[in-house]
Amino acid sequence: MKKLTTLLLLLLIAPLAATANTDESPFAFQGSATWFSNAYALGSAHNTQDISLLALPSLTTGKYTHAFKIEAAKTVSDQYAKWLISDGIYSIARPLWKKAELLKISASTKITLPLSVKSRHNTSLLMKVALTPSFKLSSFHSFFKSIELLYAPTLSKHFHKYRTSRSGNTNPSYALGNTISLVESPSDHLSFSLTFATTQAWNQDNKRLPPVYAFEQEVSYTFKNNANVALGHSQADNMYNGASESDLHLQLHDPYASTYYLSVSKTF
């Protein structure tokens, strides 16, 4: 346990001590370490804790930014758990239009590659392609240095080898997601954000699958050396309790679906 605690402290503190790279370069690299815990009391039989390590190299060529995201995660509350690799995500993004600093529109395409055990052996995912236009509205106030409202709809197509997963769940064929975020920044370094997202998926027979929603609240601080510390709460669950859409199930805090996290990241 002491070795684990030492490792977590090193992963969380090391990025803060690194100096910033002021040279402009088309290449960038972001690394992060994130600790997660569910809402059950620490030390209880139902409490689980995970740590995730993320790598995000990127290359900017003209107006286009290419990036590849990969993560490795481990359940640290389980002494027998192993490190698991996530799916890899290649993305290409570019700005489309802006009106001074008030309104900015951009677009991105993401391709998910099935590198994880879950995708390869359970859901039989072959590939997923997602298209996302993004709209950011910014305003400036004397109290809050800036307030930003972001909206991003996403249309994704899923390619699976089989219609159902090995666990018996129906694999989605395509999905429509909507994400809206409010970001308030009292200074250049401190920011608060609220995010709400929904996803509606359909199977290969165009039958609707149960929609899901997600809430996230986060406070973050960015240092001058491009290191960032974030503390937040997130939860994701089915939008309806049962088959009837009249039984809406939206909660700001559900102890059975909540996750708390602490993340430290550094951009080079």
Number of separate helices: 2
- First CA to last CA: what distance? 31 Å
CATH topology group: Porin
Number of domains: 1
Shape: globular
Q: Structural class, from secondary structure content?
A: mainly beta
**Number of distinct beta strands:** 13
CATH level 1 name:
Mainly Beta
Provide structural commentary.
With 268 residues, the chain is mainly β. The protein has one domain: Porin (Beta Barrel). It is 8% helix and 56% strand. It has 2 helices and 13 strands, in the order αββββββαβββββββ. The protein has a 12-stranded antiparallel β-barrel with strand order 1-2-3-5-6-7-8-9-10-11-12-13. The radius of gyration is 20 Å and the shape is globular. Mean pLDDT is 89; it is low at 1-10 and 14-22.
Search tags:
single chain, mainly beta, Porin, 12-stranded antiparallel barrel, 2 helices, 8% helix, 56% strand, disordered N terminus
In a nutshell, what does this entry contain?
By secondary structure, the chain is mainly beta.
How does the SSE layout of this entry go?
Blueprint: H1 2-17, E1 27-38, E2 49-61, E3 64-75, E4 84-85, E5 88-99, E6 103-113, H2 117-122, E7 125-139, E8 146-160, E9 174-185, E10 190-202, E11 212-222, E12 227-238, E13 258-267
Antiparallel strand pairs: 1-2, 1-13, 2-3, 3-4, 3-5, 5-6, 6-7, 7-8, 8-9, 9-10, 10-11, 11-12, 12-13
